[in-house]
Amino acid sequence: MKRKTAKKILAETFREIAGIKPIDKITVKDITEACGYSSATFYRQFQDKYDLIAWAYTEDLENIMDRIEYDKFSWLQALTEAARYYYEHRDYLGNLLIHTSGYDSFVRNMTEINYTSLKERILSTEGIKKLDKLTDMLLRIYIHGSVRFTCEWILGRYDIGLEELVEAYNLSLPYPLRKYLCPE
After folding, report:
1. Which helix (H) or strand (E) holds 38?
2. Which end of the chain is more exposed for a tag (fewer CB within 10 A), N or C?
3. What's the pTM?
C-alpha cells in the first residue's frame, strides 16, 4: 500500500478548506490545524499556500499527461480527462480565480505549467532537446488561448458541457502540433 506524502495531505486538506472558505482567507495555520501538522512541516514542503496551489495543480496535470504515456491515452482521451478534471474541480478552481490576490498571476502560472507539460511531452515523444521556433510559438498560442478560455468557462462565462469543451480544445489545436500530440 502506498502512503500519502505530507505534500499530498497538505494539498488535500487545503482543497477541503477551500470548499467552504475563500482562498484568500485561508491561512497556513488553518491548513496545518486541519490535518494535524505543524507549520514547520508545511514550510518544509512549501514556501506559502500559493506554492502549494501550484504544486497541486502541476501534480494533477502530470497525472493526466502520464496517462497518455503509460495508459496509452490518445490526445482526445487526455483532453477529456483534463476537461473532466476542470469540471470536477470547478468550484475549487473558481475559488482560486476569484479569491486570490492575483488572478493574472494565477493564469500566468497555470499557463506556464500547461506549456511546460506539453512541451516536455513533445520533446520526449520526438527525442529532441529543443523545440523549433515555430512549434514553440504555436504551442504558446494554443496554451495561452486554452487556459484563458478554461478560466472563463470555470467562472461560468460559457455555458457548455464537457463534450463541447473537449471539442473546443481539440479543434483549436494548431494543425502543425497535431503530428506531435495526435499521431495517427
Report:
1. none
2. N
3. 0.80
